[in-house]
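A quick aside before the break. I want you to see a complete sequence-to-structure record at least once, exactly as it would be stored in a machine-readable document. Don't worry about memorizing anything.
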Amino acid sequence: MGLTTAKTIHALTVPGACPILADMAREHAKDFAERLPRLIPKEETDISHLSDEMADILYPRWRTRPYRMGISFPAFAGEEYTRAVELARRSPTYRETNDPEGPVHHAAFEAGSARVLRDLYDLVGQRPGTEVLVDGKKAPYAHELWLPLFWIFVAGEE
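That is the input. The structure line, written in tokens, reads:
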């Protein structure tokens, strides 16, 4: 074994023999909080005051949020509208927004309230303008795939 090869093996196997390799070994992927300037604290100890979106950006994987299926629907004429709004208001995240055509109702439900979501979808699912949201976002096959999968939880309510 030549002298150069011995030095290389020594540099790779003995910690501290090569400062460049030692620095590379200590490197790890930095999240957003680690890249912030040190003028502010590196991390917050309590993130409960942050919105879900901001907590996900600053501290991914810190907050466990409940998985929710949502539905939004515009106002419509008929007696079913009153019942639909009543069901939507059972959601812990219910909100109402105004569009040029009128109010739009947004509701999201956790697994324990799967029956309420199913009853609401039965009333408004086939109406124009109704959207199904998977954890707050539009998703492919939300009507055809995600809702039936979520309705598995209806059996657990009984």
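Two observations worth writing down. The chain has three domains: 1-30, 31-65, 69-157. The chain is about 40% helix and 15% strand. We'll return to this after the break.
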